[in-house]
Each structure stands twice: as C-alpha cells, then as structure tokens.
Amino acid sequence: MPSPAQSDPLYSLAHLTLIDCSAPELIYIAARAGYDAVSPRFVPMNVAGEFACHPHDKALVQATKAALATTGVSVAEVELARITDDCDPRSFEAALELGGEIGAKRMIMSAWTTRRDDRNFLVDCYAETCDLALQYGLTVDLEFPSFSRLRNLDETLDIVRAADRPNGGVLVDTLYLHLSRVDAGELLHVPFEWMHFLHISDCLPGIADTREGMIQLARDARLYPGEGWIDFAGIIERMPPVDYSIELPNHSRVAELGHEEHARRCLTSAKRTFGEARSKRRATGAQQALAAGANAPTLHTKENNDGPRAY
After folding, report:
1. What is the pTM of this model?
2. 111 domain-assigned
C-alpha cells in the first residue's frame, strides 16, 4: 500500500503539447485548464510550427514572469538542452539562468549525435551541463526518445552513472517506455534519487517500424491517458513519488478542440485514468536524503568570467 504521507502529485503542462504557443500563452492556458505548473521551452528546437522562445528576448521574459505572477502557476522544468555533434553546454546557460530565476526545478536534456562511438563525448557534455545547472539550483534530467542517440533506459543510465553528478537524473516518458520496449519492472533498477518526474501520454499497442513513424507519433499523435494501452498504474507504482508533466501533442485534437480544451482534456483524462495509483517504492533514509538533495540542488554563487532534429 502507498504511504499515507504521500502528497498529491503536481501536474505540469509541457510545451510540446501546445508547441505553437508562446511561454506566456502556455502559462495562461495552463491556469485556466487547472494545471499546477508549466514546462516551457527556452532552447528553441526550430521544428515546424514552434513558437521560438528565446531567453534573451527581454519582452518575452517580462511577459512570462508577469503571467506566472498573475496566475500563480509555477515552473516545473525548462527545456530542451540537446547534445548534438557540435554541442557546447555553455550555450544552455542563458536558459538555465532564466530557469533559476522563474523557479524551475529541472532542465530536460536529450542526445542527438550521429555517431554510435561517442559515449565519452556524451558523458562530458552531460556532466558539464549538470555543473552549469547546479549554479542555478536545477537538476538535469536525461531523456531517451526512442529515435534519438540514447534509445533506451540502459543507455541513459550509463551516461548519468558515468557523469556522477549530484544533480543528475533520468526522465521517464511513458510513450518512450513503450516504443523502446522497456518493461515497467526495469524502473525498479533506477536509483530512487534519479527520478524526479514523469512525462505522460498514451498510445495504441503497435510500434512503428521506422524512425519517421516514431517521430510522427511523438510529435503529432499522442493519445489522452486511458485511450491507449499503457499501464500507467504499473509505471507509477514502480517509481518514487514524482511530479507529472503531460506531454501530449496531437494536432488533430488541437484543430478540433482548440488549445485550452485540448490541455484541459489531457489533464482530466490523466487524473481519471491514474485514479488512486501511487508509488509503492520504499526508499531508505539515505535515499530519501539524496532524493531531497537532488530536487533542491545546492545553489552556488556564479562567477563572472568574461544534427539531427529533436522531436
């Protein structure tokens, strides 16, 4: 049985769900639809239909802060730092700094290099990003989109383990668990303190047999929780108590329902489908301390020193 001390999870609206909205629009929609938080993209991906939100855009940043203050919505994560063949982690610092300013807890990262023999490069880029993020109080949660350089849970764990940073983490996405054929039981092997939140969406049983098919599903056609076959209770029970970020782009639903109603149905479907499902994992005292530290990294004083597409 889950512990009675578990608090209700925080629900966040991920920017990919409404990729053509600006960060302030995302916040106002999230507030009206009943979300606790948002996960805005401040590292533009330059994908079709994206509203590019740059951390150096002073008017956008001011409007974002005003929207947060007006609505009371918080910021759960900022995204999306990509490890590409020419990656320079210092290019993420403006987004990390803004994330710290607006109260974000985490930065999402994924790998999009074109070679399969670049493990050391991935480790170095991830470790340096963690070091930069620590200055602003953020963890760096490494994701494994099934069509990216890191295609499964084991490959991702290897990078986080090798980097060995106190603010490292692994992002589990329910869609990619399915596409990468990861059994929910494998989550029990992920250190308790490395899992901070869960990306939520549903899908039908079949798995696309091409990279292009996976990308189309991930970017354009995810389903509301309960419409597909993903075992959310089984996943939730095998993870620590975490926040939920709903990442559910579906262009046909947005076209039919509009941004706000689509966001609202994402949330109501998730809450109805999850029901009373809660974590059944038990952490030791040491693990609980580590998890608390990872969710609130030590904030250091900053010194003033003068490829492939993501989804």
Report:
1. 0.90
2. yes
